[in-house]
Sequence to fold (439 residues):
Amino acid sequence: MGASFMQTILMPIQGELPRLLGASPSATAWVITVTLLSSAISVPISGKLGDMYGKRAVALVLLGVLFLGSLVCALAPGLGTMILGRALQGLGMGIIPLGISLLGDVVDTRRLGTAIALVSATLGVGAAIGLPVSAVVVQNADWHVLFLVAAALALINFVLVYLVVPDGGVSQRGRIDVVGVIGLTVGLSGILLAVSQGNVWGWNSAGVLGCLIGGLIVLVAWAGHELRIDDPLVDLRVSVRRTVLTTNLASVAMGFALFASSVAFPQLLQLPGVVGGLGLDLLSASLVLVPAGLAMLVMSPIAGRVGRTAGPRPLLIAGAMVITAAYLVCLFMPLQVWTIVVANIVIGAGVGLGYAAMPALIMGAVPKNEIGSANGVNTLMRSFGTTAASVVAGAIIAASAGDDIVASFSLIFILGLVAATVCTVIGFFIPRTHVQSRG
Fold:
């Protein structure tokens, strides 16, 4: 929940960053981009380190890094220091797959599905709480206070993990694949830079094409290296297993379906009525979106019960179908405040089901000594889907003007509907697996 809160705290003031930091919009965009890059690098590497050195120990290190990054941001005098702090915060995001993987070591298998659903739901709760809290702070205090709140949460989490969470033990030993770490870092950075900066640099620019092609070439070389060594950073032979591969593909689609609404709804709520918006202020718009996060939390015991009786596969399919229904509401009903509340709650419920299912599917399909690494890759796939949705939705909104703004939101909802439908279809190709069957 703390990690999710950290991700959302800048959303209310993203448009104000050039003025607050005294820099150009293209420069301040790095405050968001660097967190994306560092978190994408951190999640698969953190999972592997957790398998090697103990998930609790690595989790404590990551929470320490998250605290340090938040403190650096809170004290940042300018853009450069802020970018450094946000990079450190992004590295701390590896705590998410690591925490879910740790459940497999310390929770009774009869309760594992519910535990996974509950922890997954806190991602939505953190975002739901983060938006109004950020809005209140921005309206009543210096914006740096946001990062003091994030630092306090990270410190509280560090103490609680140290005092309460048991050590799940070490799944495997070995050396760190330094070449694999470098290759994955360079390859992912290239692709994510191209995706995140396409709207700024231009999709046909040399920078975007160079980053995209270069990143793909590096990742191909990295994959060859990983297949050749005995102790790879990411075991690609495990990643291409049918259950793991299809779950990861479904994760990209569900991540896109989730974030399409997360980009569209806040802007639709705050746009003036004369251009088709609903004219709410920042705090009111944030409060409208809170129930979706709570819906994820409410769905967690239901998801756990369904997962125990039917397995995680039907859970994922049901979640994707629920999100599909929500986007149909967005497309065929007039969008007022109450319809957005209902649609967002339904999307939250669907995401709650899907996000509970995906880690369970991964944990039921990989060896125990690969759980951390495999969950890290799955989290990366979800993040890639949300990043793609953010870029696509942002480009659609930026390209619209005047009366076309309503049509642009409809197009975003259509893309969300397509992504949710694709996730549903992929779900039927996932082999039947139950989380208790993990070997």
Residues 434-439 have pLDDT under 50 and may be disordered. Residues 2-176+233-437 form a domain with the Growth Hormone; Chain: A; fold (CATH 1.20.1250.20).
